[in-house]
Description:
Protein name: BTAD domain-containing putative transcriptional regulator
Distance between the termini: 49 Å
Number of helices: 44
Pfam families: BTAD, NB-ARC, TPR_7, Trans_reg_C
Low-confidence stretches: 485-497
Number of strands: 15
InterPro entries: AAA+_ATPase (IPR003593), AfsR-DnrI-RedD_regulator (IPR051677), BTAD (IPR005158), NB-ARC (IPR002182), OmpR/PhoB-type_DNA-bd (IPR001867), P-loop_NTPase (IPR027417), Sig_transdc_resp-reg_C-effctor (IPR016032), TPR-like_helical_dom_sf (IPR011990)
Mean pLDDT: 84
Keywords: DNA-binding, Transcription, Transcription regulation
Shape: globular
Domain OmpR/PhoB-type: 1-95
Amino acid sequence: MTLSQDEFGVLGSLVVRRDGRSVPVTAAKHRIVLATLLLGANRSVPTSDLIRRVWGDAPPDRAAQTLPVYVMRLRRALGEPQLIHTTPTGYRIDLPPGALDLHRFEALADEAAALVAAEDFAAACPVYERALDCWHGPPLADVPSESLHETEVPNLAEQRLRVVSELVDVKLRLGRCDEVIADLRRLTSQHPLRERFWSQLMVALYRADRQADALDAYRQASTALARELGVDPSDSLRAVHHAILTGDPALHQPAASTWAPVSQLPAPVGNFVGRGAELARVTGMLSRGAATVVVCGPPGVGKTAFAISACHAVRDRYPDGQLYVNLRGHATSPPLSTSAVLARFLRAMGVRSDHIPVDEDELVRGYRARLRGKRVLITLDNAASVEQVRPLLPGDPGCSVVVTSRNELRLRATSVRLDVLRGDEAWKLLARSLGPEAAVAQFDAVGELARLCGYLPLALRIALGNLVGSSHVDVASYVEELRGGDRLAALAVDNDDTAAVRRAFDLSYAALPPDAARLFRLTGLLPGPDFSVFGAAALLDASEDVARGLLEDLASAHLVQRVGADRFALHDLLHDYAADRAAAAGEDLEAARRRLFEWYLRTAIEVGDVLYPELGVSGPPRMTPEVARAWLDAERPSVLAATEHCAAHGPLPLAWRLIDAVGGYFGSHGHHVEFVHAIDAALGASRAAGDHDAETLMLVWLAAEHRNLGNLRVAQRYLGSARPTGRTVWMHAGLNGVVHLELGEFPAAFASFERLMGLSGEEWAGPHVRIGALAGLGALRLMRGERVVAESLLSEGLELARAADGVNMEATCAGLLARCHTAAGDYARAVELLRHALASWYRTGARHARAEAMAHLAAALCLGGEHAEALRTAQRALALVQELGGSPRIESEIHNALGLVLRHLGKPARAVAAHLRALELATSADYRYGLARSHVHLVRALAADGRRAEALRHARVGRDLAARSGFGDFERMAAAALDEVT
């Protein structure tokens, strides 16, 4: 990783280098301030935190006046006054990526974990090792702060040990058992109570044919646990011991793969003829082993049909699946971006949405890692260039690729060029559709038709569209028309590959009624891969019935093809031909295109009226929630393409208005990569237009997307770079409050929600502004343990939301209010409110919110005594969030709910495992509330499992964390649990 000119270190002694030279920070208290700022780099560190770190729990009276002096002197020592910023609540140090060793460590550990998830263990190993190389001793070794050493240093050390353990797992998977035994001996000596290291040592010894040593390691672990804690080994360690005693073959096997075969190949093309030699050559190569084949040839020659037929013929040779994508490299609309293709492929291969990176280089690495060791056949259809294809090539020798392109791409590949059909093959293709009797009776005319179509499959199929279905097939008359009606081909140069296709197009187009011909011309403006009857009506400025009838005419002429109920698509050549015809006819293209894009926007706003009515409605609803969600699902690619077209070519405002209209849907349905790229395009448009409010709006949407992905610090950076004015202030304030709240930064969250409450009095503010403020303040009070105040705020919010028909905000307030009732012991009322919230979330399709509500419902059901239903609810919530790739924050809540249920069902060991997973997820998301909840739950689960010493440790950590963070209920619960255990 390339470092910036500045380098800072906290993983060892405090390190500061500016422009390559070491900068001494000699004063002890200055080092404490700097270390605290570095641990919270790129976000505001509250003054109260800095005071506690410098002076402890009993600061001097003038600490608040002394702290700015320390910061001023620290700025001077660093030689850069602007490096440390004063914020409304404290101070912030801004560091570029890679400047802090902790950030490098975390980034490398995440990269390695992603490679492990993709089962690329060989690549993960050196990345883990590079992560551990960031450490140079005990963290903050020369920073004399008791507070930091009590709270932050243990967390940092825990992160390092977790990565060490993960690296050992990888080496065990790679069979490097002898190599890890010495390391594990040292680790078990230094950390004798960490059962994970003992388990790994036992497995390594057993795999190295040292069964006696493995059993002795178990005896050492048992002795250490009994001596230090007075407990027996855990169930998991005993299970490894039992497996060694019985010679369980599973100890020699790596964990089962999570790979699920995928099949995306389109159905084979009907009436496929000819290409025998080429087909045999390609299928032979694909059958023998990994190959890359480029199928090239002129437009309309049948490259896609050939490639799909070849791939179907060998699909059994690729048991791990077949991937397919139409790259749209020769369409007039923008080709699919590399990021969009890779995101699609990764989702198809079972990668969760929150594990799919946004950065293109990381996408490529993740895609290739996921394919490593697999046999997958990849079809890249309609490629325009080598640059479009190269990032999509797998790096593994077990996979094969078939590329189709009009161009002979210079890849390390076997090139197969398709020319037109032979005369007998073309005659056969026509005869199969015309019928053998009619074809034989008009043998010469059929042959002449094939010749006039240039023996091109697409031209032949277009001609068949004009002939098949007639009461009497008169091929000779059609041939005469084709000879005489070649107006477009007369303009074509000799040897033009598309001339024969255009002759067939021209005749089919000339036979269309005027209105159908006009609709066909306008289809050349469509930005996406397909379109609906309603989009066609917008292009025409006509009714839906009229558009449907005209599309039936075009489908009968094979000028468009049906791809679903009320949806159509057309070949790239037809798309180009339609655009040429529109220009030749003098059509007002910009007016038609604008009608289409405004229809997208208008319908998206109507969808928002149905799914998000609390934001204000533009009129009575004209669709059901089910229809609204279906429209978004179907039109997603077209809306994104329209957004990028408007961002590039105008009208610029339509780009950011489309983003704003569909943002709620994209944020809750997992299409993060595509949406982030579309927001970036709209952000560029807003800056090009000099529209400050639009720029802020797009920055807020980017922040919202990163919050959905669990990247709370990234979301903060986007919010910090926005300068909201006008009506964008309320969105910014609301999201800023939510992000601070989830990070446990209560003063900043309170300030944001109070700002939102102040805005609710503005003339333009709808009820949603006040409801949002009430919900935010209620959630904050709930997290602080101020249940009565929270209940009052949330009850008011719920009533206002009901009056405004604000289904989403009503669900939010109901869910939070239910948690108040759960805390008060009114479980029946909590269950009632949560079921109401779930019904609302189901209506709007907000599946992440539904999963979170199900977690709290499971907890309320469990505490109310309905344990079986609670278990089913928690399990459904977990399945839903894992299917979606939900945020680690929500998944942490679900695992805690599941652990609670398991403990009440008398399964404390499984409960402990669930709460530990919740703790891990909360740590990864920097979700402090979830951390406190996990520690509190662990106390009772561990105590129920007989692990008293561990329960005491978690009780103390949970109590201290809750006290520092202001989580009143958790502080009281942890203290009570500590009293019980002691």
